[in-house]
Amino acid sequence: MKRREFITLVGGAAAAWPVATYAQSARVRRIGLLLGFRKADPQTSANLAAFHEGLKAVGLVQGRNIEIEERWPGIDAGLARTFARELIENKPDVVVASTNQVVSILMQETQTIPIVFVFIGDPVGSRYAETLARPGKNLTGFANFEAPIGGKWLELLRELSPQTRRVGFVYHPGASPHVEFLAAAKAAAPSLKMELTAIPVTSMGEIERDIPAFAGAGANGGIVVAPHALTLEASEIITRFATRFRLPGVYGDRVFA
User: Fold this and answer.
1) Runs of H (alpha helix) within the chain
2) Mean pLDDT, rounded, for 230-235
3) Contact 202, 230 (CB under 8 A)
4) Residue-wise over 145-172: b if at least 16 C-beta within 10 A, else e?
5) Comparing C-alpha atoms, which of 203, 202, 205 is closest to residue 178?
6) Helices 100-109 and 77-89: crossing angle, nearest 10°?
7) Is the pLDDT of residue 25 over 50?
8) Which residues are CB-neighbours of 222 under 8 A, at least 6 positions away?
């Protein structure tokens, strides 16, 4: 998601509170941030700045009429649950959450506090929304990808590297969007004359073991890496392997470039 899109999202979500009430009400609004990335990441820092800019555009300013409480669990699920409970205990008006893992944990902890999600995939399949048109529940937000993108990633790899015949598809098996991406990639592979190998990863150790194993299994290999808090956290490791083993790649986020 680009910075401008992030501003639009936050501004649209905040619009649920009529602008006229900001000036009339003395009550300070409370916003919780529960984000499944590293705060030090440059892209995350830019998005955080855009978040504040989007709020300011609709009359919400930190220290004046809103209080923002931040939590950054990264890929640690246990820490995400602890932070979710801390935020909920402080009774925020809304929580902004990113990544499927964090949103799933947060929705287990509250069914009443509004949740605005960003940087997630497959909101319907993940049960965050009943339908795209009418989310229902206490969640709404933006999804970055739809399932057919899995096949498009293979098409891009084919254009980038026509000699590639073997493709390692790196994904998190516990993320429902990734399962759909993989299914779309499998459906596209035969027409592209590519042999697809699923590389499910749930830890750094599996990434460090399984990508080199795929590279060593034959020539003309390439990789597709689906976006996830884990793969983003491991971006330097993954791109280092891609360089070492000469694996052309297509990635779900520009941080890999």
Assistant:
1) 3-14, 19-24, 42-57, 77-89, 100-109, 149-160, 176-188, 204-215, 229-233, 235-244
2) 89
3) yes
4) bebebbbbbbeebbeebeebbbbbbbbb
5) 202
6) 40
7) yes
8) 157, 161, 164, 166, 167, 168, 247, 248, 249, 250
Most confident of 3-7, 41-45, 117-121, 123-127: 117-121
Q: Do domains 3-145 and 149-256 have the same CATH topology?
A: yes
Q: Considering the entire predicted model, what is its pTM?
A: 0.76
CATH level 2 (architecture), domain 149-256: 3-Layer(aba) Sandwich (3.40)
- Residue 65 in 3-state DSSP? coil
What CATH topology corresponds to 3-145? Rossmann fold (3.40.50)
CA distance 14 to 174: 31
Quote the longest CA-to-CA distance of the chain. 68
Domain ranges of the chain: 3-145, 149-256
